[in-house]
Amino acid sequence: MxxxxxxxxxxxxxSGTKPGVEIWCVENLQLVRVPKSMHGxxxxxxxYLVLKTIFPKCGPPRYDVHYWLGKxxxxxxxxxxxxxxxxxxxxxxxxAVQYREVQGQETEKFLSYFKPCIIPIEGVYSSLPGNVxxxxxxxxxxxxxxxxxxxxxxVPFARSSLNHDEVFILDTASNIFVFSGCNSSxxxxxxxxxxxxxxxxxxxxxxxxVTPIExxxxxxxxxxxxxxxxxxxxxxxxxxxxxxxxxxHENPSVRLFWIxxxxxLFPCESNLLGREILESNKCYMLDAGSDIFVWMGENxxxxxxxxxxxxxxxxxxxxxxxxxxxxxxxAERLETxxxxxxxxxxxxxxxxxxxxxxxxxVAAMFKQQGYDVKELPDEKDSQPHINCRGKLKVWQVxxxxxxLIPVVDQTKLFTGDCYVVQYIYPGDGRDDNxxxxxxxxxxxxxxxxxxxxxxxAMAESIKGNAVVAQVFQDKEPRLFFLIFQTAMIFKGGLSKxxxxxxxxxxxxxxxxxxxxMALFRVQGxxxxxxxxxQVDQVSASLNSSYCYILRTGAxxxxxxxxxxxxxxxxxxxxxxxxINPTWQPISVREGSEPDIFWNTLGGKADYPREKEITGFxxxxxxxxxxxxxxxxxxxxxxxxxxxxxxxxDVLILDNHEEIYVWIGQHSNIKSKQQALILGQKxxxxxxxxxxxxxxxxxxxxxxxxxxxxxxxxxxxDSSKANMHGNSFERKLAILKGNKKFQEVSVRNSWKTSPRSxxxxxxxxxxVVSNGSGSSISPMSSVPSTxxxxxxxxxxxxxxxxxxxxxxGPPNHGSSGLPTARESSQFARSLQDDxxxxxxxxxxxxxxxxxxxxxxxxxxIDVTKRxxxxxxxxxxxxxxxxxxxxYGLPKWRQNKLKLSLNLF
Length: 903
Hints:
This protein is 22% helix and 22% strand. By secondary structure, the chain is α+β, with helices and mostly antiparallel strands. It has a ten-stranded mixed β-sheet with strand order 2-1-3-4-5-15-14-13-11-12, covered by helices on one side. It starts with 19 loop residues before the first strand and ends with a helix.
């Protein structure tokens, strides 16, 4: 909540009480509030102050303060804007993050407030009303950079301004030309069309032509001729190497400096940066090259903070870095993920006090506005978003086999096993499919690998595209338990791999049966969402917030914690009935337990007795994935909308409890397993800088197949999800009102290769089906992956199947491949029975068919890479003839291909 005293500029009064953007301009050394009609219009001769206020679903409001400096703003006004930013932060309770923005070098966060773009205006802002004099339309040339947040810059109207790397917009009185440099990306071209739409509506009243021009297009084309005539005639654009796409420099050395009260900088000598270096009564500068941060301890004074900011601003000006480096000013406990990522260690601390203070402030704010609110309630999204009364199938995994579990037992899971869950539910005019690979925390690697492969094969074998998800025990999303409705999770395991492991290690088999003593924690919210989880049979497993069932062999106790509710007690009775209706329980309340109860648990011991406090849920975040040559990076997309789901991209939506990997139809990722790899890599890089677990659930969602539990994070327009073409073609169709690309279903556009099917629509392989007919294939036709072993003691050495999913870098061998040179005129493909089927295809050498090839082949059936080998090389690699190979069971074929990196 803001605290505006008499010492605070009156222009700030009332600020930060509503979500959204507020803007002030420095005019005649005074702050003047800019009306909303002028938001996004920045004059190059001024300095501005911008406040972004966010009210999350839970927790205190968040503030970002930006001061924007036009390229012609004088130094006095620029310094005043900086000082006012600090003053506004202080008035808001010193809980804002401050950013310095320079015209033409704005941060993507700042640009995201003014979609699709900001186009700085020449001149100086005036708050006084004036007459607008009509003038001849000025022809303008702009460059557009960025594939999500677009930076627009006006350049001289001359041929020499054009290059092959950027997208240019030529704005004339009657026509807007879009010139796409041959090295520009599809995404950048599509975003430039959004800028064109903005110019068309705001400068032309919606009445003008829009003409796309391709770099290198023949001059004989009428549109091209008209474009070049504006420049006095055609002339080729030189290929200036200095203006071509430059390679990123190596990561610069990160340096930390202590800023003294006298404004002096002293380097902090330390080989490793850790949170403990930062002292709360000091200010520091972290210099990371293009990013410079000023960290201000919560016990530092306002004068120290102001001095620190001035010192750093002067430093970047003196070093000539004022237009190449982004400055961010952070108060203690408000560190951004980017800042924290530069430190080797950053403790994960739940700021309960800060959270509770924030809840009280927000409640008081609403009360000031006339709402009778004592405190804001904890809000959890209780909507399942899909029909939870669909059809459930569960398979238990035994390495290369998957056994369909009878309906009566499909809600019983074991911690030493892995399972594949298929959930079929009514969607939009058809049945939709959701698959889970559930990995017990005591399961062995072989079963984890098998579960991912089985799940992927099932998802690819059904008609249409399914959503798949990897789930670790104890990190199940709420939706997982909702579709089960009732779930029981027992200790031990039934799989051969688990039994073999505990036998070799001499571990006692704890697999549950009704003759053994057991302790169950009962949890849930209703009879349609309740679970019984077997826990260690010790007192420390108890928690006052839950109810428990203790089976001693001769007796059964039901224990009710002091903080449990009547709903919990009802669920306790229901679960007891489901586990064994013949048990006659002895009801015990916390604090009145008999000695036999404690003796069965090995004696009385401490356990949690206070109400569990979960920190406030942050708003979801969207990231663009950039992965090539083993290098994995993500870039956050701020203030995201559905339009940011660009068909050429791979994006990750992180809602802090689970992540969604969204795969565009025109992206390089073509398999579910590849997407799971990317999700796992994301969790690995996010773990050091935020409170996130390696075992968080990972969903894979494909464009055109978005389920409601994904789309509810957006203001979803289904018509946008059903368009044809790449992102540039789609935006151009909308801009020109062309219906050709609109309302085209892409539901089945992710084609899987033809394969033989069973009566259930799955490939026939080595599968046990309990006499219920053929079931599923245990392996999929995509690269393999593996699980993170740091959290689980049972992760032993196994086949390389799926290894990269859990521990290694992403494998991109089958995606994003460049056009290959032809090596022959024909290749040999084989049918599933091993007979020859000559097709007009190609033969390629083994090294080009490998998943990790540096010169990979395109336009082949990636499920049958071996079919493109010549007979001699096939026999050399597989040590058998083709007919022998195709006579093997499918799972055996796939294992051999995996060993050669052909699968």
